[in-house]
Hints:
Layout: E1 5-6, H1 7-14, E2 19-23, E3 31-32, E4 35-38, H2 40-44, E5 52-55, H3 60-70, E6 81-84, H4 89-98, E7 101-105, H5 111-124, E8 129-131, E9 136-138, H6 140-151, E10 153-159, E11 164-167, H7 176-182, H8 189-197, H9 200-206, E12 210-213, E13 224-230, E14 241-249, H10 258-278, H11 282-290, H12 300-306, E15 315-321, H13 326-342, E16 347-351, E17 354-360, H14 365-383, E18 388-395, H15 401-414, E19 421-422, H16 428-441, H17 449-461, H18 465-474, H19 479-486, H20 490-504, H21 511-524
Parallel strand pairs: 4-5, 5-6, 6-7, 18-19
Antiparallel strand pairs: 1-3, 2-7, 8-9, 10-11, 10-14, 12-13, 13-14, 15-17, 15-18, 16-17
Helix pairs in contact: 1-5, 3-4, 6-10, 15-16, 16-21, 18-19, 18-20, 19-20
Amino acid sequence: MNEGVPLAEVVRALHGAFVELVVAPNGSDVRIASVGLVEENDIEAAQPTPDLCLIVGVPEQAIAVWLDELALRGPEDRPRALMVKGSSTALRHASRSSGVALVTVHAQSRWERVLSTIRGVLEHSTQRLELDPIGDDTDLYGLAHTIASLTEGMVSIEDERSHVLAYSAAGDAADELRTLSILGREGPAAYLRRLSEWGVFDRIRRSDDVVEVPADEELGIRRRLVVGIRSIPDASGGVANLGSIWIQEGRQPISSDADAVLRGAAAVAARLIKRIIDAPTNETVQIQRLLGARGGGVDIPSLAAALSISPSGPAAVLGFAGVAGAETTHLSAVLRLAASAFHRSSLATAMGDRIYVLFPGETAVKPLESWARELIARTEARTGTAIRAALVAPVASLSDVAAARYEVDRVLDRTTGENRVTTLAESRTSVLLGEIVELVANHEHLLDPRIGVLRAYDEKNSGAMIESLGAYLSCFGDVRAAAIQLHIHPNTLRYRIKRVEEILGADLADADERVLIELQLRVSGR
């Protein structure tokens, strides 16, 4: 099965009123699996490119020159499509010659909104739910088109911040508000004030009712229906506002049963949006595969291209522990921003209660340690949560990143945070001793039954032989130091140690006996 989404599907998702596929040398079914913003510096630096490049702030002449250079590369080393605002004859010719498709977008489109929409198409196109109110499997775009066909209106589905997530076809009947919303622009201020005065936003957040918004001929705004998208109540009865569904009336009146359709669609949309929120994105899955967390073989060059990082050269891996639950999600977002500010190509992901950051091309240990310490100090001061980190650097290549993450986990598993940022070299004793103790504990034939006998003696006689033996060994056989630690007379300890030797049948003057028994005590005390 081919990876990615056909270019034609991406274009359809953005809708023909705002985008146009103007050149398709290899047809409109070329697969798009990754997308990214590309600036002039990225072109000059010959960075690896995603399948679909959104060209931001690059002069047309520079784009044409770049396409000419791409024509000399193999198909696997060039993007499959470029997206630009406007295209000249020369640019279209360069596109055909290079074999790279060319898509134009509306001049007023906001690149971050276009990028967000395309990522949504790529990340969730294969995610389907069984949608009983509609009777079919779909995604948010499919849901928008289904609602439109049932209600005779033009549909947009928005998140809780009024950002458009999906929409149906509009034709030439879309009013200014709909057009600006889809382009990522704010609607007419006077109309938005009116909606607020009418209490439209408050009503859809507080109830499941469908709200009618009358037309405003003066502002050129057509009649609308809107319903809130609200989550299923949790165990405490709480309901989260996930967004809204809007139907704009077109040339035909909205159907009479639109209220019922909208209420059912809101329930469907709530499950879809919740799944989108909970599901890992394509980028997250790719980062986790690179870190060796998803099993199977890893195609490093393909993953590097999808993540827009160099497939060759060194790297560093930093792991954070000490957070749990909702804190992990929040801290992951904070770390992603902080890491990107420190190192533009960094990649962050949360797995379980740990967060990992990959720094491609980074080999300097000291700057990374300093950055991590400062970040941990700021985060702990703000949240009161104790966080610790383990660093592996340098990592020879991306092929070694999975092994580096395993080393990070080894360190985090066996350290407690006395040193907020550490490495295997700095914590080798704790790590190796902890692993040895766990190995012995997990293999019954390696356990010394004499320790169980001594523990049973203590339980039967309310004794303190185990505690006394542990103190004696930790003080290297210094009876006076161990007695002070135990708050007993040295002669009492001497008696206890003699009795321990009798029970164990061991000579604690023997170095091998001492090593074995101390290790067994650690296992027993786990």
